[in-house]
């Protein structure tokens, strides 16, 4: 008699365990607000100093490597760890001294695009720089192209008619570093704001600092379980870097980047845990936390160079999903929605009454081109960004006020669950989105 309740209990327990083991994990059961809040809290904590490249991003990468490990991911085939390391070159305009036609030019009327470590030019040297004059009242576009596609030393005289453009260059190049995957080209470009249209005499000397910086993407994989589909990949990504330390506002100088893009990165970690628990992905799933998005998408660019584009069925990049979208709760938009049928596939797998994937409501902001998806889209991959940001009214965007307190975690959980459910037929190999035109889709 006494044994009966005991054996009954064992029976009940094993039945429960069996149910737990054999029921497939659902997005509802795996993706929790608490887990999302924990990852965003770590990444957007002051200890990570705003995750700028070469500073707090190192700590953030180490944290994400641990998260990928815990989620049950594996490193890329042939890689020893989740870190995908590469070098960028950080260059910064340091000094420029100019006199033109006998007159010294004020610092605020001159700008140097970083190039050679040091140079000096005169009008009488053997191979003087090429001269480009931007007169008043002309459309700027072709001149902008000539400046940024220069392949030799270039001295540009810009008429004050174009001072708005010129001042934006001054503000940018004298206070920001530039980054590139290869060392800067061995020539320099100098622009002067002046009414002069001739450079009969000039002397120009300048200095640029260049230093290599080691960066890392964090990349983990769940190998495909179906031999017919395991060579096909679906990529889930977000960028973990942000802007670092900014001019202080009310004593706060850390741009924590809770929405941009700790929210997307937390989603990638949650999706990794979800698909690992499901154990049924036919295609190979690649989870990436990119670095260096904010300084030009170099993490995604490096990553894209290691890929076989034809093997990538889709890329779902996730950016700024921490606040409700323009369309209300339980909705998100897909950038470049009309360029492939990826958005339509996501919606097919999720009832529109439960969640809506909408086209990008801000086409004039060119968001499709402004995030890491674009580096892969250029290779023909159906690569889109999923977001909820209300860009025109998001006053915290790119300021020190992008804090965790602004985030709506219950809606964010709904977004991540919708992505998980929406991607089901991509993960199972049942749907393959149409490809983009390679080049500039
Ligand atoms: Zn971002």
UniProtKB/TrEMBL annotation:
Report the residue ranges that make up the Peptidase M28 domain in this protein. Answer: 217-421
Record keyword Hydrolase present:
yes
Q: Which UniProt keywords apply?
A: Hydrolase
Q: Which GO terms describe its molecular function?
A: metalloexopeptidase activity
InterPro entries for the chain? M28_fam, Peptidase_M28
Give the range the annotation lists for the signal sequence.
Answer: none
Biological process terms from the Gene Ontology for this record are:
proteolysis
- This one is known as M20/M25/M40 family metallo-hydrolase
Where does this protein come from, organism-wise?
Answer: Hymenobacter rigui
